[in-house]
Design a protein that fits this description.
CATH class of the largest domain: Alpha Beta
Shape: globular
Distance between the termini: 42 Å
Number of strands: 19
CATH superfamily of the largest domain: Aldolase class I
CATH topology of the largest domain: TIM Barrel
Order of helices and strands: EHEHEHHEHEHEHEHEEEHEHHEEEEEEEE
Number of domains: 2
Length: 416
């Protein structure tokens, strides 16, 4: 692997955060994203989030560009014949809105982007399954500005692709979030079992289900499916986390660090984006002596997640690849408020989850360590004393014992 020094092929990496709707978009912007990826109502691989209508996309692009943040639009489903006729209007509106790039997986869609939005950057999605430099070079010759490599590659393989491709070709890789059991997300299980096509953004996540066998002549008698004595969730992947390995990701020549999670909460987007932002900035200050402090590393454990692993980055994941216990998430903290304003005396907030007077809280400002306080002198919007924040989205305030003036959109959380 190359030297830690940043060279022509090893530039300062982009931090790319997910934005499933406007709330998640603001979280990404407020906590340090260099770019966001989002979808309109069609052609995106995540149909469940709110996504953006035409007017919403225009607002999103304007807001991002005002803050110097790029917008990458996902067009990475595998559309059927009947959908193609709608793509021209779809991509022209997005181009007119000012998006910076289109993420595509289909060669035909790539050709239509070039036809209808010829000046728009094209990023080839991880759904394309790019695992070698020949494919990367061919896609570059066809007009791709960036390739999002398959998640099944090791750091050494990525470094080899970087070394054998033009320096102008950008390389993007997922560094954090949920992993799919199928190769680069190309899966038929959901379509087969639920008639929800994963390749058109409708995955029902049957890989997270608990499976059993039924013998043909003993109907109704079910037998557990054991890969080994750990359990029956044989398709249930762990989540990826590369927060400890920022230096190795940079050294491999990755242009953009991508956080998975357009269907995750705004709190998730804020916490994970903030952690990777701080880790990247710390590395860039002194690449030769990078060491991640626990105050940053611990942050990624304070969002809802499955057990973490490093995916395929260090070779075949072997024993660490699957999560057998159940299909649920580990959740140790809840966001309970978002700061709307602050002065030396009081913190003004909007409620996200109920908590009580005297509870120990953690304040999470952008770009700095968390601050622990106790909720004191709580008041409702009329200045009347309250014992708890029982009303959804209520406005309230509490005494500022943090010792700092907290910026707007700072998140406050509580251990559950």
């Amino acid at each position: 692997m190359s030297s830690p020094a940043l060279d022509v092929k090893n530039k300062v990496p982009e931090l790319l955060a997910p934005a499933g709707d406007e709330e998640r978009l603001l979280a990404a912007l407020n906590f340090g994203a260099d770019a966001v990826y989002l979808a309109k109502k069609e052609f995106g691989m995540r149909a469940a989030p709110g996504n953006f209508d035409d007017e919403g996309l225009e607002r999103a692009v304007k807001l991002c560009h005002e803050r110097g943040v790029k917008v990458h639009l996902t067009c990475n489903t595998l559309p059927r014949n009947t959908e193609i006729e709608h793509f021209e209007g779809f991509i022209k509106q997005a181009y007119d809105a000012g998006i910076d790039a289109a993420i595509v997986a289909d060669i035909g869609i790539m050709s239509l982007v070039k036809k209808f939005a010829p000046d728009l950057d094209i990023h080839m999605s991880t759904q394309t399954g790019i695992v070698n430099f020949v494919s990367a070079n061919e896609l570059y010759s066809m007009g791709a500005k960036r390739v999002v490599l398959a998640r099944e590659l090791s750091l050494d393989e990525i470094a080899d692709i970087r070394a054998k491709t033009p320096k102008e070709l950008e390389i993007e890789c997922f560094v954090h979030g949920a992993m799919c059991v199928s190769f680069s997300g190309r899966c038929l299980i959901s379509s087969y079992l639920t008639d929800r096509d994963a390749n058109r953004g409708q995955c029902a996540q049957p890989c997270r289900w608990n499976y059993a066998l039924m013998e043909e002549k003993r109907e109704g008698q079910y037998f557990p499916v054991f890969e080994d004595d750990k359990g029956t969730y044989i398709l249930n992947s762990k989540d990826m986390c590369m927060i400890d390995h920022i230096d190795k990701l940079v050294q491999a020549g990755i242009t953009s660090f991508k956080i998975e999670g357009r269907a995750k909460s705004a709190y998730y987007v804020a916490v994970v984006t903030n952690a990777y932002r701080r880790a990247i900035d710390l590395y860039l200050k002194d690449p030769l002596h990078f060491s991640l402090p626990e105050s940053i590393r611990s942050e990624v454990f304070k969002v809802s997640h499955r057990d973490y692993c490093t995916g395929f980055y260090f070779g075949h994941p072997s024993e660490c690849r699957q999560y057998y216990a159940d299909s649920g998430y580990i959740r140790s903290y809840d966001v309970c408020a978002v700061v709307e304003g602050c002065d030396e005396e009081r913190i003004y907030c909007i409620q996200r989850n109920k908590f009580y007077q005297g509870d120990e809280l953690e304040i999470m400002p952008p770009a700095r360590d968390c601050i622990t306080i106790n909720a004191e002198d709580m008041q409702n919007a009329d200045g009347e004393p309250i014992e708890d924040t029982r009303h959804a989205a209520m406005h309230f305030s509490m005494k500022n014992t943090s010792g700092v003036i907290l910026p707007e959109n700072t998140m406050i959380r509580k251990k559950v």
